[in-house]
Amino acid sequence: MNNHKFALARRGLEMLGLMALACVFVFPFFWIVSTSFKTLMETARYPPSLLPENFNPINYAAAFASNNFPRAGLNSLFIVLAILVLQMAVILPASYALAFKKSRLEKPLFALILIGLMVPDQVTFLPVYLLFSKLKLINTYVPLIVPFAASAFGIFMVTQSFRQIPKDVIEAAKLDKSSSLKTIWKILLPSIRPTIICFALFSCITHWNDYFWPFAMTNQESLRTLPMAVAKLSSVDSVKQWHVIMAGNTMLILPLLLVYLPCSKWIKRAFAYNGVK
Amino acid sequence: MASIEFRGVVKVYDKKNLVIDDLNLLIEDGSFTVLVGPSGCGKTTALRIIAGLEEVTKGSVLIGDEDVTKKEPGDRDVAMVFQNYAIYPHMTVKENIEFGLVNAKVPKAEREVVVAAVLKQVGLERHVDEKPSKLSGGQRQRVALARAISKKPRVFLMDEPLSNLDAKLRNQMRRELVELHNKLKTTFVFVTHDQIEAMTMGDCIVIMCDGRIRQKGAPQRVYNDPDNVFVARFIGDPGMNVYPMEGGGFFGFRPRKVGFAGSGDNGAGVDASGDDGPADNASGDDAVSWPGRVAAKEILGSEVLYCVKTKLGDVMLKTSSAGRGMDDLATVSVPRKNLVFFDQNEDRVRDENEIRRLAGGRLGA
């Protein structure tokens, strides 16, 4: 009985700890949304108010109307989707080959890809920039999309999940007159759906939020992405328009949240995937 | 329907592991041929070579009269059932079966008919639209079987399809597969490491070891008349008792052909596969015997399996009477006519004169 009480108390403490941790993560988002509805005066008040006195949706209109905001949003959407499509087109065949085709090159190639995983953008952007500038492609969508077409992370993840699929299944497909592409599309892809969804989310979040790369590769207003438009909100006037900036930020985050929340269960599954044995 | 022929097939993995060494084998049209042997003997590789999932290093493979050595698996008109079922986990039972038919461009109306027919055949009509994860192991294997049947192949290949099933179900599936073979009259090639499966299902058994064929023949034949020590020991449950002789060579006898001297049960009751009926009282002049002690006793139901320690070594003895207990002194006795002899190379000696020369009182008796 004592033991039982002890376990209960322990569980309670655990829950408290987790809730505290959750607050740490949720609070910044709450603060962004809360501030986005305040007036400029209220954002500067000390001590700050937790919730806005009056809801001012006008801040959103202000953010939306500034800096080519809609155009930037469309740019972001287009770039994120284009990257995703290209990535899939590269990752799936590459992973298929790495996972199922016997070759002496398989191990060194896989190692090379893993090394690629460890190199950050900041190391490669200069040579990439120079390359595209020689090709006269700076200030087009190309340098924003093409460098990400081959994702080392994606190839790594998909190869690993392909390797968990019993080889028999692929052989059975071969005996069923299925071509390699058809096998990927009809047999393998549905089997690793959690991994694909998980990777797609990672990719979308990364490139939606990416500030550095578009900033380095473009200097034309019409090519700018949403994070840059939001960043620009803070540099227009000498007085920081926190309420407008936060409205912009909310609009930046919202699409991601809307996509992420229904998919979160897949992320868990992607890391605990097992086929029908 | 078609025969299968291996002509001088060699398979080497990674340039150094010889898995199959000069395999020449004709699998007859319409036969139920079982490739059996211990793990690593090359039986599965041989099967995969027929399917085209494995390329040969040398030699050629013929299905019917057609050389298929270079053909893609899908173009060989064979169907395979895998050990782990290998059904597509995200597809329903129906979709699993249809996948191959769609790829083979079978029209939809015909597909429906075929799917319904094969599902009826394997008794899964009520599970058409279920996902494999809802099915039991036996049902999954039936789906795999239905998928194979639906293609109406020239050749059925089965790679240890029963080894993941529990014992009862395995027995049942064994019978069903034999029935299926009788109905379809297609060539079946079945791989297993289980000699009981081989003996009960095959009409032709190919016993392999180290990438070579050790004997090929009907189950009766390989049991009664093994070509070498390996086959003698491998076939039978337990296998033949085989011992070295003083002057070189080996002799052996089946556990059913040996009895306890001086008791009613002598030199084997009726042998299930017996060519020569029960032996006469084995303690006469025409028998050899060795004193020993019972070291183990297994009651198998209608029969008892003894392990008797003698100076020959352990003698396995299968009899219908359970009269002896553990540690009892017992003399085992075999009629001479039940002995089989092998030369130094472990190959069978069948020549009478040669046997007489070999058996001249050097049996350690």
How does this model look, in words?
The complex is a heterodimer of chains A (277) and B (365). Helix content of chain A is 73%, strand content 0%. In chain A, helix 3 crosses helix 14, helix 4 runs antiparallel to helix 11 and helix 11 runs antiparallel to helix 14. Chain A is mainly α and 277 residues long. Chain A has 2 domains: 57 residues; 166 residues, MetI-like (MetI-like fold, Orthogonal Bundle), CATH 1.10.3720. Chain A contains 14 helices and no strands. Chain B is α+β, with helices and mostly antiparallel strands and 365 residues long. Chain B folds into 2 domains: 221 residues, 3-Layer(aba) Sandwich (Rossmann fold); 122 residues, Nucleic acid-binding proteins (OB fold (Dihydrolipoamide Acetyltransferase, E2P), Beta Barrel), CATH 2.40.50. Chain B is built from 9 helices and 19 strands. In chain B, the strands form 4 sheets. In chain B, strands 6-7-8-3-9-10 form a 6-stranded mixed beta sheet, sandwiched between helices. In chain B, helix 2 packs parallel to helix 4 and helix 3 crosses helix 4. The longest helix of chain B is centred in the middle third of the chain and has 18 residues. About 5% of the residues of chain B have low confidence. At the A-B interface, helix 9 and helix 10 of A face strand 6, helix 2 and helix 4 of B.
